[in-house]
Each structure stands twice: as structure tokens, then as C-alpha cells.
Amino acid sequence: MSDPFQALTRYAEQRVRNTEPRARRVPATSAQRAMVLMEQLAGGRTGYSVRHAYQLRGRLDIAALTNALQHVLSMHGALRTRFQMQSDTLWQLVEPEPRLDLAMFDLTGSAIRRSLAEVIDDRLTEPLDLELGPVMRAELYTVEEQLHALVLCTHHATNDATSVAIVGQDLSAAYEHFIDAGTALPLPPRQFDGFAEAEAAISHEDAAAYWASLLADAPATGLPFDLQPGPDPTFEALWVRRKVEHNLDGLAALAAANGTSVFLVLLTAIGIAVARQAGNADRAVLATTVSTRPEEYERTVGPFVNTISVLIPAGAQFEVALKETASQLRRSLDHAAVPFEDVAPVGTQVESMPVLPV
Predict the structure, then answer these.
(1) How far is residue 149's CA from residue 80's CA, in Å, rounded to a whole number?
(2) Which of 138, 147, 223, 258 is deepest in the core (most CB within 10 A)?
(3) pTM (global) more than 0.70
């Protein structure tokens, strides 16, 4: 006969586990699936770590800063998200409570002659655990008594460029509140997991037909490489900077004369250059990343990104090509709410992992 005390203990422990708040489980978006997959394949060397860095001057209240960070995490579910693969489906699990430790590094007495930027860059390469979490790492560097650097490292699968600005604004407002209770705390916005659910419910039929029609018989963009890619993706690259000596007002004037933007002028020019390099005289297909952030999610942290393809009529006169590219981009953006990777024709899929689309 089993010990009644042990049986009672097991019963109590089970009751505690059953009453603990559970993580909200929602299917990952297409963009999240792609980034998490690449992270697994490359072992944390994808460059998908996103750094939020803030220089803090003056007297710093560490307790207020810690409370502000916890409040920002409680506001934005994406920053409390971890990922789990179950039955061939990648799920995002949104934890109910924030989990974040502020690591502190005192560099005031350090004998190491390295710049703060170099120290922070080294930390950026340390991968985040997307399965166990947390997906945000917070570090505070004391450079002088009244000079600090706050570095938040997150993963691109949980935020984007707009999210970086949102986090900075909310963190500043929350810190002010914990310094002076008279200031208002920022309110939680709509959550990214709601967007993920809405994306999963969208019908793909119209978008699939559109992309199939657009990319039918599209030329392969086979650019010549100076170096052949290796068998495994390394995601290591160099920045190449060129100073443009000439005045660029002509680009703005050309865009204005055609009722479009400088971005579209440059996109069309790149498409024509790619077509020539690839030996395609008349057309080039470029892939670009766009924001798919609906208005109701303008204050939401999350990876609101999608890939769309744009067909550039490279054989036409430039002004004609520019207007056609602008028209075609508008049509493509109408289908940007549907993940391109989910509806792209089979022939447009990347054949080899190391060779990425333009």
C-alpha cells in the first residue's frame, strides 16, 4: 500500500501545475516559420538577432529601469513568445508573465582597451533560445558613473524595424512613470498573436492565382558570382560602402515628374541592371520585403513582414518601365497580406538553400 502522505503530496503538486497560467498557443506566421527554420539550420549565425541600444546619460535609477523593462514585456506578447514544433506545425507560445533578468556589467575599472561598440557586438553573436525562451536579453553597461548603455537583444521572429521604435518609446514612457508616478503608463496594444490567427484564416486562392499568373514563364535571375556559395549557409557578408559624389536631386525630380517615389526609381534601375547582368533582355524578377502592418496594429510589436515579387519590364524605355513597375507593385501589395512563401508557384521556390533570391 502506498504512503498516504506521498499520495497527498503528488495530488497537491498536480493541482498546482493545473492552476498555473498556461502559455497561449497560436500557429507561427509564414515569416516566423522561415526565420526559425533558418535559425535552426545555421545554428544561430543567421544575423536575425535584432539589437536595441540606448545611451543613457545622467543619474540612472536601476529599480525604475528594471520595472520599466518588465512593464514593456507585459505589454507586448511577442516579447514573451517562444517557439515549439509539434506534429509538423511550428507554434508560438505566448507566456502569460514576463521573464527577464537585467544583466549588469561595470566597465569603469576595466583594463581592457576595447570600445563599447566592440564589446556589444561580441554579445550580439550569442544566440537566443527560441524554444525555451526568453527571446529578449537585457544588458546594462556602466561606462562612467553617469553614462550607461542599455542593450536589448531580441530575435527578428518576434519584432521588426517599427517594433524597435515602439519598444524605445514605451520603455521611455514606462521609466518616466516609475520615476514619477504622476506620468501615465503606456497601455497594451493589440497583440501579434491575433494578427497571426487572422493570417492563418485568410483564403489563399486569389493570391495563388495572381502570383501564378505574374510569374508564369518568368526568367530565372541567374547572376554570376565572384565566389561560389558553399554547401552550408554562413550568413557572413561584408559591408561595401560607396560615397556618391554627385547631387541626387535628379532622382527626386525624375520620381516627381512620373508621379512616383525615389524607391521605385531605384527599384526599376536595379531591375534593369540585374536583367542585363543575368542576360535577360526584357524582364527581371526582384523579391523585396514589405511591411504588412495593418492600421489597427500600428502600436504592436511583432514581425509584420512579407516577401513579394516584382516583375521589372527591363527591355522598355526607362520612364515606361518605371510606370509599369509602379503599377505592378501596387497590384502585388494588394496581395501582400497572404504569405508569398505559402502561395508562390513551385517553379519560383529557391532550389538551393545557400543561394538566396535577389
Answers:
(1) 23
(2) 138
(3) yes
